[in-house]
Amino acid sequence: AGMRVAVVGAGVSGLAATKCCLAEGLEPTCFEQSQDIGGLWRYTEHIEAGRPSLYPSVISNTSKEMSAFSDFPFPEHFPVFLPNALLLDYLRRYAEHFSLREHIRFGTTVVSIRKHPDFATTGRWNVVTEAEGKQTSHVFDAVMVCSGSFSEPSLPLQCFPGMERFRGQYFHSRQYKHPDVFQGKHVLVVGMGNSGADIAVEASRVAAKVTISTTRGAWLLSRVFEHGYPWDMILNTRLMSLIKTNLPRPLSWWLINYKVNRWFSHENYGLQPENRYFLPLLNDDLPSYILTGRITIRPGVKEFKDNSVLFHNCPEEEPVDIVVFCTGYTISFPFLEESVVRVENKHASLYKYVFPTHLHQPTLAVLGLIKPLGGIMPVSEMQARWVSRVFKGRGANVSPPVPQNAAQTKLDTFGLTFDEVLKTEWLVYLDTLASFIGAKPSVLGLLCTDPWLALTIFFGPCSPYQYRLGGPGRWEGARQAILTQWDRVLKPTRTRVPAGSSSSFPCLLTVVGFLLLLAAVIFGF
User: Fold this and answer.
1) Domains and CATH numbers, the chain
2) What's the pTM value of the predicted model, to 2 decimals?
3) What's the pLDDT at 357?
4) Which residues cross the membrane (predicted)?
5) Closest Cα to residue 482, out of 68, 118, 178?
């Protein structure tokens, strides 16, 4: 019999994991506690315990060409940024296309995952699941944990003095569904992630007043970037990545600063972040809502009174009726022993964010925890491709080193806090994992055999299809998908005039291309 792999969860990462296991000839069984696939992207009106919760207006932050699984482009008529229902539709098509459903057990919760007595030699795991009140034990050769990190809200009320005397209403952003609760009220949004900005904008259309309290500020990107192109197709290119990673720190900081401040001056809008490594958030409306006075930005909360709030460095108190805490989520794995994945102050020691560093057998992997500035789907999929090959035991350079001492551990592990994750450049991370499995495209190699493709790959967006040009899991359609990516972007918006060919965009780059490529070759790639 083949190698049996347990996959926990049937969201984005779980579907990719199941598919990659099948591609490598392993035998996956995917356990999903709810009755359907989609995880985070499956909207439900009621909030289910232990499951992520969306509000109806959620739209993807990354564009369809940059978020697709690498061998399954989005349908061309889908909009460039996807409402949650269409993203779910895409996941269903994916599951259908690769016949994943027959490997998923719905309504089944993973209760515990423990090392098998013979773990030291076989690396096997005892997995206990529960369905309809009945528990079952299984033995698996390997485990992929794909349960995500958006199920357990982090609500540190003790950090907000006076909260116990506050008479208004308060809730975590996970509880938020519709803006009508804010009708005519004074609303305070605490914390400024993507949800915070979204909820503030929606609330301000019906509320009397909306205030966002943010301690550290934020960088804001609009989905509609330079010349109206999607932000990630302009920013996430090999050229940009090369510039960002090879420039001296202050210079690359200046570049990013310049790019984000071209839309509006963050300082004038009270948003300039102190911290240099900070994940930008995506919101198309916030600056204009600040400019029209619908939303005010304030520093951190000093204390709550009965029906008002005091901010640091602001003398006067502000009236508040409702507080929404957009304070993020706690990463937790209730079914794992502490010894398997240690999560301390939001850090988990995971080699390349995937393999627990102190396990002597690399037979358990955690997928989809990284929060890069770029599409999560290609990342989860790349992790799954790598992990399924490690499980299969192919390729010498795949198993994580067993750390000997603390100093060495520090080099190999990454924290999972927001501040540090930006240091992991999305494209660099994808390239690293791709090189482990031999799927990283060689721009220089292609320059000789297929110069047009090479230039498109280097100057154009780093779309996931690049990782299917060669290596294991090579996909015949990859080259075509790369060369037609702009057509799929323009198709849903050029709806009044006949869509011409979009190659005019890269054309301009060709001339500059050869010059810069020469430079790149000289500086060593």
Assistant:
1) 4-151+330-432 (3.50.50.60), 155-222+263-327 (3.50.50.60), 439-491+502-523 (no CATH)
2) 0.91
3) 85
4) 503-523
5) 68
